[in-house]
From TrEMBL:
Transmembrane segments: none annotated. The keyword Transferase applies. The keyword Ribonucleoprotein does not apply. GO terms for biological process: protein N-linked glycosylation. Residues 6-127 form the Glycosyltransferase 2-like domain. Keywords: Transferase. It comes from Jeotgalibaca porci. This is Glycosyltransferase family 2 protein. Signal peptide: none annotated. One of its GO terms (molecular function) is transferase activity. It holds the Pfam family Glycos_transf_2. The lineage of its organism: Bacteria, Bacillati, Bacillota, Bacilli, Lactobacillales. PANTHER family: DOLICHOL-PHOSPHATE MANNOSYLTRANSFERASE, GLYCOSYL TRANSFERASE.
Length: 239
């Protein structure tokens, strides 16, 4: 059976992050890689508590480099540390991804020999903020118009990968939120299998800790969509 790893990049998490990690461990996840992306001194007690847990590995960026950089740091660590084939799920630190859904993606990965598994939300539910629903639906439609493939949740952070795909994942350009969109564009260019798994759609209002800047990061993503349409090589680092 494939080894299972959960990757969580985080920047200035709140106190609820610790019980979330504990829930993942209680659900049977034996390896969790957490990337501290240059968090403030005020949050270091959270990381010290987590680092003391045997199931957790803490990787640290001295300065804030962005979500994409955090994911690639974790992928490189997995590549250098684990010899056996591994199922990898990336999750957000803000509690938006239910533990049951993380486990579902890991189970789905073990059924699929290739490709990417996406945990997709339902933006038609009444409790979803209008601006979130509108932005996500619009991005999905633009993606379909540009690339011919409809992805119902292009901005989901709950994604599953096979460790054999790590060389491909770390070659994709992008250090911040645009990295995840670049990943989808390259996957479509390369005809990779994309499997969608419905997940819970969780929003916590003002209590949610998020570092997604609506206008700045949406603009960066929109720009990347058009870059991806014109030239795939701009999305991939070449050694």
């Amino acid at each position: 059976m494939k080894k299972s790893i959960v990757v969580i990049p985080t920047y200035n998490p709140d106190q609820k992050f610790i019980p979330y990690v504990e829930e993942l461990i209680a659900a049977g996840i034996a390896t969790i890689i957490i990337v501290d992306d240059g968090s403030s001194e005020e949050t270091q007690h959270i990381f010290r508590n987590i680092e003391a847990v045997p199931a957790c590995t803490l990787l640290v960026h001295e300065t804030n480099r962005g979500k994409g950089a955090g994911l690639k740091t974790a992928f490189r660590h997995i590549q250098a540390t684990f010899v056996e084939e591994t199922a990898i799920v990336t999750a957000d630190a803000d509690g938006q991804h239910a533990v049951q859904d993380v486990v579902r993606l890991l189970e789905e990965l073990k059924k699929e020999a290739h490709g990417i598994v996406l945990g997709v939300r339902d933006f038609d539910l009444e409790h979803v903020p209008r601006k979130n629903a509108f932005g996500n639906k619009l991005t999905s439609r633009v993606f379909k118009w540009l690339f011919g493939t409809y992805i119902s949740d292009t901005q989901t952070g709950l994604r599953g990968f096979h460790s054999l795909d790590i060389p491909w994942l770390v070659a994709i350009k992008g250090e911040r939120f645009e990295y995840e969109m670049n990943m989808l564009m390259v996957a479509v260019h390369d005809d990779m299998q994309l499997v969608e798994v419905p997940i819970q759609t969780l929003y916590f209002g003002e209590e949610r800790v998020t570092h997604y800047k609506t206008f700045r990061d949406s603009g960066r993503i929109a720009k990347q969509l058009f870059v991806g349409l014109t030239m795939k090589k701009k999305l991939v680092e070449h050694n």
